[in-house]
Amino acid sequence: MRILIADDDRVSLRVLQGMLQDWGYEVVAARNGTEAWEVLSAPGRPPLAVLDWVMPGMDGPELCRRVRALGEDSPIYVILLTARGDPGDIAAGLGSGADDYVVKPFDGAELQARLRVGERILKLQGDLADRVRELEEALANVKRLQGLLPICAYCKKVRDDKNYWQRVEQYLSERLDARFSHSVCPTCYERHVRPEIEKLRSRRRASEKGRGA
Asked: Where does 2-139 sit in CATH, by number?
């Protein structure tokens, strides 16, 4: 997974970059807030970002606010790194739009664990977005029937909005994008089909007797 790191301290940036590469991340490095914003505001931006709080050009909280203003079409999971550990600073960092907050000097195992949490959240968001798109596509392909359905009590034809009477399968196929295959239910078979078959058999037997006479 691609990840953006931003820190104006070159030594800290190199150390963090090496650590993340060892964990299997593809790292994009920025030396200040302006460079970080150029990456985060461009198409194909990394889904993860680790930002230092204090940087020239644009600080970490301001970057977070701008990232959140981009919208949630391509969410970015942001972790702020800073030496500020007071509760008020933590609240300010999270209030700016950061997803997590790690105090320097940080433990590598802790940062790795927090990044894994970010990956899981991004995956859940992606899965949810996919399900929403699937549901929207399904709803777009569904035609709904609502209200009363006028149907003839004898022939079972249905009256449409223009006062035309149609066979029920034609009426439904025009509104449900459905095709119908005709068959005979057991009740109708016994009531209609079997008597007709017996009539045909009786006529055949009578015809055969007439030819034999």
From this structure: 3.40.50.2300
